[in-house]
Amino acid sequence: MTRRAQSPRPTLAATIASNRKQAAVRRMLIALIAALIGVAALGSAQPYGSGEPNTTPLELRVWQGLDDPTDIAIGARAPDGAWGDLAVVQLPLDDGFSAGGHYRYGQRTLEVPLTTAAPVGVEVWVWQATRVPDLLFVSARGVGGSWELVGTVRVHLDDGIRPDLGYRFGDIRIEVDLPEPQVVTLAGSAMQWGYVDGVGSDARFGGPRQVWVTGLDVDADGSVVLVNYYNSGVRRIAPDGTVTTIAGDNGNGFRDGPADVAQFWGPSDVAIAPDGSIYVADRLNRRIRRVTPDGMVTTVAGTGPSGHAVDVPPRRDGRADEAVIDSPWPIALAPDGDLFFRDGPVIRRLSPSGWVSTFVGGSYGFADGHRRLARFGYVTGIDVDASGNLYVSEINDRVPGEVGRVGIIRKITPNGVVRTLYRDRHPAHRGGLLAEPYGIAVSDGGDIYIASTGCDQIMQLMPNGKLRAIAGTGEAGSFDGPYGTATFNFPSALALAPSGALIVSDQANSTVRAILPGPAGFTTHVPLADDKGLPYLEGVSVTRFAGRAGGSGYSGDGGPADRALFNAPGGIALDRSGGVLVADARNHAIRRISADGTVSTLAGGKGRGSRDGSRSEARFEYPRYVAMTGDGTIYVVDGKDRVRKIALDGTVSTVEWDATGNIHTMEQGPDGSVFISRDGRIWRPDPDGSFAPVGHRFGYMWGLHIADDGSFFFLDDIATNFWVTRFTAAGDVSTVFEDGRGLSGGWFSHRQHRLALGPDGAMYVLDPKYRQVVRISPDGPGAIVVDHEASGMQRFYPNDILVTPDGDLLVSDAWQHVIWRITIGESAGR
After folding, report:
1. Among 317, 326, 314, 344, which Cα is nearest to 288's?
2. DSSP letter string over 192-221?
3. 410, 530, 593, 715: least buried by Cβ within 10 Å?
4. Pair (578, 690) in one structural domain
């Protein structure tokens, strides 16, 4: 807390006298503003927000020493907060005396935490009668606000006494000014999901933690029309925040007809025509639908089929009622009536005459150019300017020379010439500024606004090709308020209102927000979000444990490991005698590196196949994982999710398993058991050939590690979250690490991670997609141990990881055909 010079200070007598008038004046002010808002509602530019004075209630607590009445302290909190949110602050009454000398005073500025906005600064003055020290008055205001809002009120110290602290106290409730809101919530309540129509915060939208499922557009009257993948209806938010359903909400399905009986399935975006018709990207029906102003729903393009996991014919252009559409989203309308939509790696056009054609794009990739020569990654947003130019936001993991997902903005002229306007210098997980852009909006004047979803900011792409932030601190949250203190949580779809307000789907909050422009637009300076990339761990040494760097083949049995040739080594595991087992994938062999470094083949290596038999007769097909039981039996998972077993005499057999779902990993436990993750569960193969489930059913379980106490640690990830979960032998489940950014600027990708725990409790996560090994220390901070940018590691593609008894890491590298030993020094926290 800081003490600040105060000028001018409130006059005690005047503020006491005026305090009696405050309630009546404020009621008149609210009535006047409400009347003005009502008049404005009749005009063409519809405002957003309530129009009431922007204040918040606070509670102040004044403490007075029992032994020394001049010993004064203060505290403050929001009504729903806790006194512990802000420690008690001493307030010496040594700033001066009133004009007549009857009162001494002191002043402090407090930062009070709020639950719906950023902390608010409050200036507090405490006045004490010099002859009657029990007579105390308080003046307060929000920093930069008006003293007239609160006035000066007497504090009666009769709300409690703390003999243990030597104080008594009194509480008062005040109203303080908040900064003028520039970001407001139109509808929904943060982190509350569902499907509920209503007013403002009573409404509910969508489902949790997906960044691409809400699409919206703004009608001519300023109302917002939106759809959500999880909700089967088309809804409207009036400028006063009232949410109604205008079509659908009849369960998932496909049915045209009157709006109140129509069905949608996975609607993901909307575009509003000048006549008020609403076009809907009906994603799982694989169609473009239209809701007419008189409430009829029709199909304007696409033939289906509908639903999840169905066979979809190849995309086909042609008449709208014959065209085959796969996954329409996002969509946008051009001034001439053309409707553009992304469908896989291409952008397609539906003409007003009812013809579907491929406008630009071909296969996935990254290339500018004309029409079919252009290549796109994952297009996440489309908008069209007044001249018919398309602007697209894009996430692309096929940019040459980059590893990871790069944010890109491109412009497409009406004749189909594609040009990149902006490309991040780094992928999202390495601190890219445009981290996973899931929304774009363009004004008629060509101003380009972008949702930097992973950075929780709304940005503008300037004519000089630079990005500037216009709203959001870069930290996840749901605070309304000024541009620079408001917070978002996975902002995605954007649209511009006729008034110039920028409407935002704040996806993880499941709310719809509005960024209100100032007189000159969005001109306030807002700092760009901090670089969220991981640092490198210091004190790391990398040496070659097995294989010849850059060389692949099948040789070296009977010789030292660093002279042997491997071909895309995959799973690795420790055996009972200190050796290392290797699933040599493209050699279709299971090999062993003994404790003295000698290489041998245990089974396979004579071609691809699935034959059982002796070690020399057996065949494997791209073996992926390997593990050894306590009695020396070796289990192998090969490329078609077959579980194979190598007996002590080298005989290979297939273990019959009547189960579905992919096998994600296999690990051995400290007690000699082997565990396999499949179909969201952990399974243990038993000697009799059966498989016993262990514990609960979870989600996608990639990496798996079994600790010495029998606890299971595993990686569980979806597109917007990455967890490390611990499951104890007693059945307790807890999250020990969470990266809530997921693909949107998080540390990790979503591709088959592997996990190992060090003796100090540090977790090592292997990420083949981002080609890195990351250390998560026991207290949470993460750092890159090694990645593809390290010296000599440009082709680094990690496949598996284990921790040796002496604490080193062994990492198999499928592209360089080696196994690396990574030693982490004491200075790095080992």
Report:
1. 326
2. -BS-B-EEGGG-BBS-SS-SSSEEEEE-TT
3. 530
4. yes
State the Cα–Cα distance between residues 147 and 817, nearest whole angstrom.
73
- The one-letter code for the residue type at 814 is A
Structure tokens, 293: 């102003």
Task: Indicate if the pLDDT at residue 830 is higher than 70.
Answer: no
Instruction: Name the average pLDDT for the chain.
Output: 86
The residues with which 459 forms a beta bridge, in sequence order, are 450, 469
Q: Are residues 73 and 157 in the same domain?
A: yes
DSSP bridge pairs for 536: 784
Distance between terminal CA atoms of the chain?
38
Instruction: Print the domain residue range for 61.
Output: 12-177
Any alpha helices (H) in 594-682, and if so which ranges?
A: none
Q: Kindly report the CATH number assigned to the domain that includes residue 240.
A: 2.120.10.30
C-alpha span between 428 and 748 (Å, rounded): 10
Q: In b/e form, how buried is each residue of 793-822, taking b as 16+ CB within 10 angstroms?
A: beebbbbbbbbeeeebbbbbbbbbbbbbbb
Mean pLDDT for the stretch of residues 541-565: 93
Q: Which of 177, 196, 227 is the last residue of a domain?
A: 177
DSSP strand pairing (599-604 vs 183-187):
unpaired
Instruction: Assess contact for 607 and 649: CB atoms under 8 A.
Output: no
Are 757 and 637 members of one domain?
yes
Q: What is the pTM of this model?
A: 0.77
From 483, 504, 486, select the one nearest 494 (Cα to Cα).
504
Q: What count of residues does the chain have? A: 830
Q: What is the DSSP letter of 753?
A: -
* Alpha carbon distance 287, 356 (integer Å): 12
pLDDT cut 90: percent of the chain above it: 55
Structure tokens at 236: 């409207």
Cα–Cα distance between 375 and 125 in angstroms, integer? 64
List pLDDT tens digits, range 234-282: 999 999 999 999 999 999 999 999 999 999 999 999 999 999 999 999 9
Name which of 699, 706, 691 is nearest 655 in CA terms: 691
Cβ-based burial of 541 (10 A; exposed 0-12, middle 13-18, buried ≥19):
exposed
- φ/ψ of 716, rounded to 5, equals -135, 120
Given a contact cutoff of 8 angstroms between Cβ atoms, the answer to whether 602 and 591 are in contact is yes
Residues 266 and 346 reside in one and the same domain: yes
Predicted local confidence at residue 21, as pLDDT: 38
Contact in structure between 485 and 443 (CB atoms under 8 Å) = no
Which stretches of 207-325 are assigned E, i.e. beta strand? 214-218, 224-228, 231-237, 242-248, 257-258, 267-272, 278-282, 287-291, 296-301, 318-319
User: What is the number of structural domains in the chain?
Assistant: 3
**CA 510, chain centre distance (Å):** 13
Instruction: Report whether 497 contacts 222 (CB < 8 A).
Output: yes
Q: Strand pairing of 625-628 and 599-604?
A: unpaired
In a domain, 390, yes or no: no
